[in-house]
Amino acid sequence: MVLKIAFAIGVALFMLRMGIAVLRALATPIPEPPPVGDLRKVKLQYRCSLCGTEVRMTVATEEAPDPPRHCMDDMELQQTEDL
Question: Where are the domains of the chain?
């Protein structure tokens, strides 16, 4: 009987600690955006040559970023427009 009570108290304490950890994670504020100038506006259109998926990139850390990967292969640059 004593073992069952000790086990129940242990499980209750574990659940309480996990609940507090989840609430703390939800209460953490969103980090501030990066300083102005770190991200550059770009307008690049990529297309996967295997499945046809298209992606438009609007901001990047550099003016000529590496192409994204899709279907385990680099996507092909379709369209470039300067802003």
Answer: 1-31, 40-81
Per-residue pLDDT averaged across 35-64, rounded? 84
Separation of alpha carbons 82 and 44, rounded Å? 9
Kindly report the pTM of this predicted structure: 0.49
- DSSP code of 18? H
Residues 51/71, Cβ–Cβ less than 8 Å? yes
| Phi then psi dihedrals of residue 29, to 5 deg | -70, 155
Rounded CA gap, 72 and 41, in Å? 26
DSSP string, 23-81: HHHHHSPPPPPPPTTSSEEEEEEEE-TTT--EEEEEEESSSSPPPPEETTEEPEEEEEE
